[in-house]
Design goal:
Blueprint lengths: L6 E5 L4 H12 L3 E6 L9 E4 L5 H8 L2 E6 L8 H19 L2 E6 L23 H18 L5 E5 L2 E3 L10 H8 L4 E4 L5 E2 L1 E3 H12 L8 E3 L6 E2 H12 L5 E4 L1 H8 L3 H6 L15 H7 L7 H14 L1
Parallel strand pairs: 1-2, 1-4, 2-3, 4-5, 5-6, 6-11, 7-10, 8-13
Antiparallel strand pairs: 9-12
């Protein structure tokens, strides 16, 4: 087992995933270093300012760590150029510290048309650049583990939502828009089931990977509540916000057109298939090894998320 008294370092601590991991670790009474470019931290954690895209920054951030959680990422439009070298720097920093490395990954590498639900053995056949980048980074982490360079584990989740989750497909553009009485624009289809991971559940599962030797050298799909259609998800959001539902669907064709003018929207075209066809991951491997995991029901998770957005 990992030394629970040791230092847990969270890279990307100001983002949705990173801040949730920090909260989970603080709640477990762990020693926590929250690393971000700004250096801020909540009560119970030590703030640390670093640019972990550089080897020097990653080494400084990871110094003295027992576990490093890699939840940092570059701008969405810069993944291909900046994400792999950042992850290489993080691997080197964790290795230098003799720390275990846990990577907060997603499901992009499997690609469109994958058998549902996807498992950790589903073929990685993504054709888009972001999916290929994710596959390359994951293989690099597993190679580093197999070579004995660093202990590593990978936790994969779908799109997330929850307190602190602003920069996500179900973040600012859904919850803030609903609270402000604006129209929520949804990609592709409102009637296709899609898996969403709730941030506190993700953090709980990722910290379990960090503290369990059984997780080492493996990819794990993180448990989530059952897939939900966009229509039902937005019904829950508007009901909790106390606002009349206002929704519209943005087709992939329209996304392609808008992408001519917006680099960010252009990037979304690659992953639009996730909302055009059923999209879910099987987490039975996780539950088989680590035991029962009760994911937060969407009704409760949406209520907590609306409350967070309302209170900002």
């Amino acid at each position: 087992m990992t030394d629970h008294e040791g230092l847990h370092v969270v890279l990307g601590a100001s983002g949705g995933t990173g801040s949730a991991i920090v909260s989970e670790l603080v709640g477990r009474g762990r020693r926590v270093r929250a690393v971000s470019r700004g250096g801020g931290a909540p009560d119970g954690a030590e703030g640390f300012r670093a640019d972990v895209s550089t080897p020097e920054g990653a080494r400084a951030a990871s110094a003295g760590a027992a576990v490093v959680y890699h939840a940092a990422q570059p701008a969405y439009t810069r993944w291909r150029e900046e994400f792999p070298p950042m992850t290489d720097a993080v691997i080197e920093g964790a290795a230098r510290a003799g720390a275990k490395l846990v990577f907060a990954d997603n499901l992009y590498m499997y690609g469109a048309g994958s058998p549902q639900p996807m498992t950790e053995k589903t073929p990685q056949r993504a054709s888009g650049k972001k999916g290929r980048v994710r596959a390359i980074m994951a293989e690099g982490l597993l190679d580093a583990h197999r070579s004995g360079r660093v202990r590593a584990a990978i936790g994969r989740s779908s799109d997330y939502y929850g307190p602190g989750g602003t920069g996500t497909i179900a973040g600012e553009t859904v919850f803030a828009a609903a609270l402000n009485g604006k129209t929520v624009r949804w990609p592709a289809s409102l009637d296709v089931p899609h898996q969403f991971n709730y941030l506190p559940d993700m953090a709980r599962a990722l910290v379990t990977l960090g503290e369990s030797e059984e997780a080492d050298g493996e990819v794990w799909h993180l448990p989530a509540e059952a897939p939900i259609t966009g229509r039902r998800f937005l019904e829950l959001v508007f009901a909790e916000a106390g606002r009349p539902a206002k929704t519209s669907v943005t087709s992939t064709t329209v996304l392609r057109f808008l992408g001519v003018f917006s680099p960010f929207l252009r990037e979304l075209v690659e992953t639009a298939y996730q909302f055009e066809e059923p999209f879910a991951a099987d987490a039975s491997k996780y539950r088989r090894v680590f035991g029962p995991f009760e994911a937060t029901p969407h009704e409760e998770a949406v209520a907590r998320t609306v409350a967070w957005f309302r209170g900002r």
